[in-house]
Amino acid sequence: MTEQHESQPHEHVEDSLKQVMDLITRHKVVEALVHKQDMPRHDLVESLVHKQNLAELSKKLDGLHPADVAYILEALPIEDRLLVWDRVKAERDGEILLEVSDAVRESLIETMDNRELVAAAASLDTDEIADLAPDLPKDVVQELMKSLDEAKRAQVQSSLSYDDDSVGALMDYDFVTIRADVTLEVALRYLRFLGDLPSHTDKLFVVERDGHLVGVLPLKRLLIHDPEVYVAAVMSDEPVLFHPSDDASDATQAFERYDLISAPVVDARGRLTGRLTVDVVMDYIRDETEADMLQAAGLREEEDLFTTVWKAARNRWMWLAINLCTALIASRVVGAFEGSIEKLAALAALMPIVAGMGGNSGNQTSTLVVRGIALGLINKDNARRLLGKEIGIALLNGVVWGGVMGVVAFLLYKNAALGAVMAASMLLNLLVAALAGYFAPALIDRLGRDPAFGSAVLTTFITDSMGFFIFLGMATVFLL
Amino acid sequence: MTEQHESQPHEHVEDSLKQVMDLITRHKVVEALVHKQDMPRHDLVESLVHKQNLAELSKKLDGLHPADVAYILEALPIEDRLLVWDRVKAERDGEILLEVSDAVRESLIETMDNRELVAAAASLDTDEIADLAPDLPKDVVQELMKSLDEAKRAQVQSSLSYDDDSVGALMDYDFVTIRADVTLEVALRYLRFLGDLPSHTDKLFVVERDGHLVGVLPLKRLLIHDPEVYVAAVMSDEPVLFHPSDDASDATQAFERYDLISAPVVDARGRLTGRLTVDVVMDYIRDETEADMLQAAGLREEEDLFTTVWKAARNRWMWLAINLCTALIASRVVGAFEGSIEKLAALAALMPIVAGMGGNSGNQTSTLVVRGIALGLINKDNARRLLGKEIGIALLNGVVWGGVMGVVAFLLYKNAALGAVMAASMLLNLLVAALAGYFAPALIDRLGRDPAFGSAVLTTFITDSMGFFIFLGMATVFLL
C-alpha cells in the first residue's frame, strides 16, 4: 500500500457507492433520451451532459481507495460494473483486481484483452502477481513473466510453487535487512538513505552476509535506544518466525496469539526468504471464515451476487445433489414402514419432529467439536470426557424434550402408547445425535479432510435416517 | 503486550499442551500412589517427587506467552484446569484472564477470592480492566475503582459507558502525542526520553495544546525524513479516524480495507480520546465470526468444552425450544392430511424430500443475502435484480431436481401421477425457498436485528411447512 492511501479521508464507502449509482443512473437517463428521441448521437448538448457524467464518475473513482472501488464493483450488477470498470484508470487496474472477490475478478478479467492484463499485473509486487496469476489466461502469464527481471521472475515462480494454504503463498518480499555489527545511528542513516519503507514495517530483519537470519530489530527499539549502541545489543534474537511450508492457519493463529504486525519467513537452513504481514493474515482469516460460512450452506465457492443463473446453479448443485441422495436414503427408511403408516397416519405427522430435533441437537454437538478440532483443543486425553459431557446433555435433553413431546403427542392423539413411543424415540435419537455430532467430525478429521465441511451433512443424515427408523420401528413393534 | 513476548521462541503450542498434560498425569499418579499405599502424606520421597512435578509445571507455565497459557487452560477439563491455574504466578493472572474465552474465564474467576481478583485486575491497562469488569463480582469492581487514580478511573468508566459493539469499547488509551511545530529531531529525542512505546505504535498522534487532533506522523516518515524538518511538514493531516460511538464492525471493515495498524479515535469536537489497534480489531473479528458460527448452530454463547451438563444444556435449550415449535407447526400441517396419507403411505416417505430440498436451497439463498447485507452490498437499487437471479436459479433447480425426483418417484411406486405431483411440488417449493431465503433476512434486517441469526430457522420453517402443504395438498387434489 502506498503512503497516500494511509491518509484516505474517512468518507463512508456506502456514500461513495450511492454517488456512483446516481451518476450511472444519470448517465443512463441521458443515453435513453438520446435513443428515444432518435436524435443524432452527437447532438451537442446531450453529448456534453453525457461526457460530464462520465467525467464526474472518473473523478469520483480516482479519489477512492482501491478497496473502496472494489467494494463498489461488487455491489453493482454486471453491466453497471463494467461501465465503472471502464472509467477506472488503467494504472489502477492491478491493485483493484487484487481487492475484489474471486468471482467478481473473473467477471472483470473476461472483459480485458491480453495487453491490458499484462499492463495491469506488471504494476504489482511479485507476491501480488503470484496472487493474481491463477486467474489470468496462460498466455498473459507467460508474457508477464518475460517482462520481469530474473530476480522478480524467481520470486513469482517461488510464490506460485507453494500450496495455497501455506505461509509461502502469503508472504511478500518487501523487507529491510540490516547487519548486527552496525550501530543504531548507522541503521537510522540507512533508512533515511532508502527514503521509503515497505508498508507494515514494524521491525528490520537482522541477517548475516549469507542471508542467515540472526534476529529482528523492532523499530520501537531503534527509536528508543541510544544511537551509539550496536544492533546486536538491542535486537531480539529469538523472534517468532515461519517457514514457507508452514500451514497458513497455524501462522494466522500465531499472529493472533502474539499480536504480530510482521514476521520473517526463513528457509530450512535459516536464510531469510520472505515476510508475513498482519494485513495479509487478516485477509486470509476473513477469506477462510467466509469460505467456511458459504460452504456450510452448500455454496461451493464465493458467488458473485449478480452472476448468471447458470454459473450460480453450478456453484450450488453439488450440495443439492448430495442432500438429495441422503434425503432419498432417509425416504427409503420411511418407505420400509409404509404399512405401519397406513394403519396409523399420525406417525407421518410426528416423525419429522423426532428427526428434526435430532438434527438440531446433533449439529450443536458437531459445531463445538469442529471448533475444538480447528483450535487444537481436542486430543485423545480429553476426548472421552467431552464425549461423556455430550452424552450427558443428550440424556438430559432426551428426558426434557422427549417428555414434552410425549405429552404433546398424547394430548393430540389421545393415545398414551403413542406418547410413550414418541418420548422414548426422542430420547434415543438425541443419544444418536450426540454420537453422530461427536464422531462425524472426528471421522472426517481422521480421513485428513477439514471437518468444517461435511460434518453437518453427515450428522443430519444419521439423525434423519435413525430418527425415522427408531420412531417408526418402535411404533411398529409396540403400537400395531 | 510487553517486549519480552514479542521474542517468544516459536515452539508449537500443541507441544506445550502435551508437556503440561504429561506433568499433570505424573502428578496425579504420585498422588494416587500416596493415597493407595495409605502412606503418610508427608513421606519424604513421594513428597519430593510430588513437589518436583508441580515445580516443573510452574516453570513450564512461566515460560509461556499468556495466550498460550490461555489455550492450555481451555483444552483442560475443569479439575486439571484449576490445578494449572493454581500454578500460574499471581501477577500473570490478569493478562491470562483477558486471553481466555468468556466461558473459561467464568470458571477461573469462580475459584478466586476478591483479594486475588483485585490484584489480578489492578495489573492491567484501563481499557483491559474495562474488558474484564463485566465478568467480575460487583464488590471487586468497586474496590478496584477505588484503587485507581482519578484519570484512570475516568478512563475505565468511559470505556464501560460505551456499547459493546462500538469503537469506544475497543479503544485503548496508550498513544504518544506530539506537537506539529517541533522538528523530527525533537520528536526522536522525545521518544528516546520516553524510553518505551506502546505496542502497535506505527504512528504518533499530532495534537494541539487543547487535545485537538491535527494529524498523524507515521513512524516511517519520522525515520526516513531529514531530522531538521518540522512535524507539520511531513505529517498526514487527513488520517483515517474514528469516533467512540462508531459501529465496531464498520471500524473493522475500515482496518481491513485500508490495512491499518493503529488509528486515532476523536470525540465530537475533534479531540483525541483514544486509539484503535489492529490486534484488538482482529480479536473482535474472530469473536464475531465465532459467535456467528456458534449461534447459527444454536449455541447461545461460546461454550466451555468441559463445562457442566447443566450449563451446556441451558446454553442450547432456547434453540431446541424454537425448533420444537416450528417442527410442531410443520407437523400439524402434515396432520391435516392424515386422511390422504392413510390412503397413500408413499406420501409420507416422499414428503421429507420436498421439504428438505427446499430447506437446503433456501439456505443457500439466505446465506448469500445475509452476507450481502452484512457487507452493505445490497441496496434498493440492486435488490430486485438479485431477487430475479434467485428466482431464475430456483426455476432451473426446480426443473432439474424436480424432474429427477419425479422420475425416481415414478420408478419407485410405478405411479406416473405421483411422479408428476412430486416434480411439480419440488418446483413450487424451490420457488418458495428462493422467496423465503431472500425475504427472511431482509425482514429480520428491517426489524433492526442481525439477519445472521434467525434467517436459517425462519427459512427452514417456511420451506418445511410449505413443502409439506404443497406436496400433500397437490397429492390430495390430484391423486386421491
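The longest strand of chain A covers residues 213-218.
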